[in-house]
Amino acid sequence: PADPLAQAGLALGYVELSHGSEAREDDLRRARAAVQIALKLDPTLAEAIAAMGMVEGYREWNWDDAFRDIERALDANPSLAIAYYHRSWFNALFGRMEEAIADHKRAQSLDPFNPLHTAWLGELYRWEGRYDEAAAVALKSVEMAPQFPPGHYVLGLVYQDQGRYDEAIKAMQKAGEASPRWRWALVGPA
């Protein structure tokens, strides 16, 4: 309880849970509580500052503070991949796709073995209609981590957008096989 990095890690974990297939209503509230402890223990810790930015954005919808905190975190630690990753999604929410893709690629370069950064980069490419790039990075994430559902899911969305429905269904089925909690991908929003 007295380790600011552990509290920041707990906060970051809750942020990630809030975006997953097992998200609970109180994940971001719990993230906020953990990050407040972390910042009280060490107000300069980059991971804690980044987690606060994520909470400010995703929970409070206070985007000015969210961007400011992520920027402060990156000033403190320019190698904090997860901060680039979430700033990428903040930028995407505001339609700043060039910045979103650049931040996502930066996260991927800093943490190249994390399939999270590779799979979801494919989703940003898909949003832009860059289907070849989207499929390539989604396939790369599947090769990296065959049991990581988002890679299959993004690939399925790309195939769906291209009208390749049989391949889309197979990819979504693989997401559900990788984790039963992803079975919704066959019937959920796309």
Major sheet size, sense and barrel closure: none
Please state the CA-atom Rg, rounded to the nearest Å: 17 Å
Tally the helices: what do you get?
10
Helix content: over 70%
Q: Unreliable segments (pLDDT under 50, ≥5 consecutive)? A: none
Q: Please tell me what the overall shape is.
A: globular
What is the end-to-end distance? 40 Å
How big a fraction of the residues is strand? Answer: under 5%
Structural class: mainly alpha
Name the helix and strand elements from N-terminus to C-terminus, one letter apiece: HHHHHHHHHH
Summed over residues and divided by their number, the pLDDT gives a mean of 93
Tell me how many strands there are.
0
How do the helices and strands line up, and which of them pair or pack?
Layout: H1 4-18, H2 27-41, H3 46-58, H4 63-76, H5 81-93, H6 97-110, H7 115-127, H8 131-144, H9 149-161, H10 165-178
Short description:
This protein is mainly alpha-helical and 190 residues long. It contains ten helices and no strands. The model has no long low-confidence stretch (mean pLDDT 93).
